[in-house]
Design brief:
The chain is of the alpha/beta class and 429 residues long. Helix content is 43%, strand content 18%. Strand 9, helix 11 and strand 10 form a beta-alpha-beta unit. The protein has 16 helices and 14 strands.
Length: 429
């Protein structure tokens, strides 16, 4: 780790950090030549339209009146007593569409409108980004198509239904692992064909520059709000901040305004069901991960010796991406952000613990961060102020969590529900 590296919030020429030979570290633009004009157009919009008073004024208005910001900071009194630390929850699940994804999607769709684009394309894993993009397009009047892996379409059916309800076209991707990385590939292919009239709303702080910077800036509304909200509960800074890390958008937004503060920042990855290839989505601290280039940027990826992305697994569809945000990779390298992981089982246990003690149902992604907080408290620390980012609520996960926690009752309900649906279909109208 290069402890003396200075941490900047923004990338430098599209990169975060430099290696010992003076070469750029993470980020960049590793894309087909056909996409360079589209990225140059986006970069120009990011530098000129994005900071403009007109755009920022409209974005703030929409965040206040459409998204419902600020989202609350909740003191988890019961959990705090049990865990012997003061636990606070930044509850992004109360934002419109149920997760932090709307912060980014709305900002990008609004930027697309200012750029004169008529159509938006997006990729999605857990469905929350696709849902948020579809909602933003419905609000702002743009056509929307969302690419989603076939496996994710099956396990996140409620979000698919709602995306279509918003008027979006959901295109199932059956290639490769049929999950998020393949949805990204398909979205990039589509963008390369129609970049003149289409805007690609990338769902995480990934991909070629300027996406990692743009998405971070849009998600940093979270940590900006925290700077004010924490004053209602305590003086000074929190001791620890914890977020789950898939691609990394919720984490980098949650950490953004605290990168230069003396606060311990911890990212929790998906530990899945084991340590083997295809059993988890751990990029940091994994013997199966290494630096590489994929889907337009350089970062740390789960990949084979030929640079092909490996299969991953997580009970949460939003954490099973094979790569990680380039800025978070840099922040790990310089020792600013720590990383741990939580298994599927630990995430489910954390979900149950906070549901029964605090009356919230966190998303499975967020439950990994909560599992990280529980594990930290069990290490023996006491009296610390710990903020956990609840990146979304768990309504979307009911077909996964109910099957995992109450399989017999859930199976019986589904069988009876199918009978009721079939009976209704057979009945004359």
């Amino acid at each position: 780790m290069r402890q003396k590296d200075k941490i900047f919030l923004e990338s430098k020429n599209g990169y975060f950090g430099e290696d010992k030979n003076g070469k750029h570290a993470f980020g960049g633009q590793y894309i087909p030549e056909i996409l360079f004009p589209a990225l140059k157009e986006l970069e120009k919009a990011y530098k000129e339209i994005f900071p403009s008073k007109a755009y920022q004024k409209e974005l703030k208005m929409l965040l206040d009146t459409f998204v419902g910001r600020p989202t609350p900071l909740i003191y988890a009194a019961n959990a705090s007593k049990i865990l012997k630390n003061d636990i606070y929850l930044k509850f992004e699940g109360l934002a419109n569409t149920g997760a932090h994804k709307i912060n980014n999607a709305l900002g990008q769709v609004l930027l697309a409108k200012y750029m004169g684009k008529k159509r938006v394309i997006a990729e999605t894993g857990a469905g929350q980004h696709g849902l948020a993009t579809a909602a933003a397009c419905a609000k702002l009047g743009l056509e929307c198509e969302v690419f989603m892996g076939e496996i994710d379409v099956a396990r996140q059916r409620p979000n698919v239904f709602n995306m279509e309800l918003f008027g979006a076209k959901v295109s199932s991707v059956s290639s490769g692992s049929k999950t998020l990385k393949d949805a990204v590939n398909e979205a990039l292919r589509e963008w390369s064909k129609r970049s003149e009239d289409s805007f690609y709303v990338l769902g995480s702080a990934l991909g070629p520059y300027p996406y990692p910077d743009l998405v971070r800036d849009l998600q940093s509304i979270n940590s900006k709000e925290l700077k004010t909200q924490t004053k209602l509960f305590f003086k000074g800074l929190p001791d620890v901040m914890i977020a789950c890390v898939g691609g990394g958008s919720n984490a980098i937004g949650f950490f953004a305004h605290y990168l230069e503060e003396k606060v311990r920042l911890i990212g929790i990855e998906a530990g899945g069901i084991g340590e083997g290839i295809g059993e988890n989505a751990i990029r940091i601290h994994s013997k199966n991960a290494s630096e590489g280039i994929a889907q337009g940027f350089k970062s740390i990826f789960l990949q084979d010796s030929e640079g092909q992305l490996s299969l991953t697994h997580s009970i949460s569809a939003g954490l099973d991406y094979g790569g990680i945000n380039p800025q978070l990779a840099h922040l790990y390298e310089v020792g600013r952000v720590e990383f741990g992981s939580a298994t599927d089982k630990e995430a489910l246990e954390a979900l149950q613990f906070f549901a029964s003690n605090e009356g919230i149902i966190p998303a499975l992604e967020s439950s990994h961060a909560l599992a990280g907080a529980i594990a930290l408290c069990k290490q023996g620390i006491k009296g610390k102020k710990i903020i956990v980012n609840i990146s979304g609520r768990g309504d979307k996960d009911i077909f996964i969590t109910a099957k995992a926690l109450t399989p017999k009752a859930w199976s019986a309900f589904l069988r009876e529900e199918i009978k009721r649906i079939e009976k209704d279909l057979e009945s004359p109208k």
